[in-house]
Amino acid sequence: MHGRQAPGDDPDETPARVLVDAPPGPEPGELTAAWAGRDGGQRHPVIPAWLQDRAELRHRVRWLAGHLAHTSAYHAVRAPKYAARMVVRSPRGLVRVVGGVHRWVFDHEALPLRLDAVARNDPEMYVKLLRHRDDRVRWRAILTFAGLAAAVLLAAVIAAKASALGRAAAVAAVIALLGWLGSPADRPLLDTAVVVPRVARLTSAVLIRAFASLGIAEINRAVARGGDGITFPAPITRDGPGWRADIELPHGVTAVDILERRDRLASGLRRPLSCVWPEPAGDKEHEGRIMVWVGDRPMNKTTPPPWPLADARRADVFAPVPFGTDPRMRLVPVTLMFSSVLIGAMPRVGKTFAIKPLLLAAGLDPTTENHVFELKGTGDLAFAGQYAHSYASGAGDAAVAACMAALRSVHAGLDRRAGVIAGLPKDVCPENKVTPELAARKGLGLHPVGFWIDECQRLFTHPVYGKEAEDLCDDLIRIGPAMGIFLVLATQRPDARSLPTSISANAGTRFCLRVMGQTENDMVLGTSAYKNGIRATTFTRRDLGIGYLAGEADDPQIIRTYYLSREAADQIAGRARAARIATGSLTGYAAGETDQGVRPAASILDDILAVTTAAEDKARSQVIVDRLAQLRPEVYGPWAALEPAAKATQLADALKPYGIDTVQVNRRVAGKPVNHRGVIRAHVVTVRDQLRGQPKGG
Q: What is the spatial distance between Cα 70 and Cα 67, in angstroms, rounded to a whole number?
C-alpha cells in the first residue's frame, strides 16, 4: 500500500513517510524569489497624478475658485442677516461669558469632589480640598480683576482716541464675538452655502457584510469563520471622489461571480447602483482578485469636467485625444491613428454624443481629412460640415450613395498610399506605416484620413450597396490604419447583419454603452466579454453616456464620455474651420465643392451677401469679417479676434476655393487716402448663382 504510514502502526520499524509538504526552512532560490516579488510590486507615484495632468489640475483649480467665489457671494448677500442674528444672540453670549468666568473663578469644577467628601463624612479631605479651593479662587480673582481692568482701560482708550469708524468696528467685533458665543449648537451663526453629502466610510467590515448578502456559499462559509478567506491585499483608500478596495475572494469565488450580482452588492453596501463599480483585477492577477470602487455620488449624477480641448486651437490625431472620464474622474483618452473605433448601444443612451469628442478632435487637427456621414438624418453631426471634406446627413438613398462615393474614393487611395510607403527609404519609413513626420510632408499625400459613419447599419443592410460597403470597410479596417486611415463606426443595432463580423472582429477600439443582451454586448466588446464580466447590460437607462471602453488600455474601462452641447460643438468646429483656412487645408464639402456631399442652404457666399447691401459695390474685408462674426459667432467668431491685416488674409483664403479674389478698396481718413483689401459684391453674387445652378452631389 502506497502512501503515508501512520506513526505507531509498527513500533519495531521506522515509519515510511511520504513527505507532501516541504519542511520548514529556507529553500535554494527563496531569497531570489522574494526579491523578484518585490521587484514586481507597484510603486505609487511620488507626485499625485492630478498634479501631473494639466487638464485635471486646471479643472480642480477652476472648481476651487468657483467654490470660493460662490461661498463668498452667498455669505456676502446674507451679511445683514448675520449682523442682526449676532445682535440678537449677543446677550446670551454675554451671559455665557459671565457665567463661565464666575464658574472658573470660584472653582465650580471641583465642587463635586467637595460634596463627595461631605457625603463620605471625610472632614480631613474636605478641609484639604477647601484649602486648595481658596488658593485657586485667590489667584483666579486677581487675574480676573486684572483682565477686567485692562479691558476697561482698552475701552477707554478706544473711546477717547479712536475715530468713529474705529469705535464702531470695536463695538461690532465685541457683538460678533458675543453673538458667536451665544449661538446654539444646533443653529450655527452662518448658513450653509454648500451642502456636502455625508457618505459613510468604506471599511472591511462593511464590505464583508455586503459580500455575505450575495448568496454565494463559499463567501457565507468564510463569513461564518469570522471572515477567514476574504483578505485585503492593500488598504482601503480614497481614490478620487470615492473609496477603492482590493479584495482577495475565498477559494472558488471569481470576480465574475461578484459582477453578476452588482445590484445585490450595491444593496448590501446601501449605496445607489451607479455608485458601486466592481472590476476584475486584470490579467496580472488571478480570477479571485477583484477591485471594488464605491463613489460618494452616483456616476450619472456627478458633474463631469469640461472637455480639455474645448478651448484648444489645435489637436493631434497621432496623440491620444480626451474621450471621457472614469468613475474616479480621471481622464481617459483614445488614440485614433493606427486603430479603428466601434461604438455600439441601444437607442437614446448617448451613442452620437460619444462620437462628438473624437470627431471634433480630428477636426482640430488641420492635417486630417474627414469624411462624415450621419445616416439617421437628424443632423446631430452637422457641425462637422464646417470642416469635413465630405459630409451627408439623411436616412434615404441619397445620403447612403454619397457615403458610398466617398468610401470608394478613400478605398482607392489605399494602393497609392501603399506604393508611396513602399518606395520610401528605410531610414525615412522604418516601420512601413504613416508617421507624424510623413503625414506633415504634403507632397507625399499621406495625411491622416478619418471616415465616420453614424448609424452604419443603414449602409451595411442597404439592398444595393450593403455587400460592397462591407468589402470596402473590411479593407479599410484591416489595412487602413497602417496607411494613415482610420474608420469610426457607430450603430444602435449591433447584430451580425447590421455590423458584419469581419468588421466588428477587427476593430481595435470598442465602446459599448447600454445594450440589452449578451449577443449585442459581445458583438461590440468582443467574444467572451460577457463571460469575463465585462457587461454593458448592467447599465440602466439613467446611465447616459456611460459605457465600457475596450482596446485602449490593457483592461476594459468604465467611462463617461464628455458632454458637448450643440452650441459648443459649433463653436469648436468654427475654430477647426478657421485653422484649416489658415493652413490652406480646407477642401471638399467645407470649401464649397458640391460633389462632396449634400450641401446646406447656407455658405460663406450667402453669409457675405447677407451682411452687405446692393449699394455696397466694394466692401472692406475687415468690415465683412466683423459683420460675419455678428451674424454667426459660432462660425466666424475666431476671425473677429484677429488683427486687421489677418482678417483680410483670412477672408481671402476662405474665398480662394470659389475663385474669388479680394481687391484694393480705397478710402480717405483725415483727408488722406488709405488702402484696404475688400470684396466686390457682384463677384460673390455671380459665383453663388453659378454654384446654385449645378446639380447637388449624392
A: 5
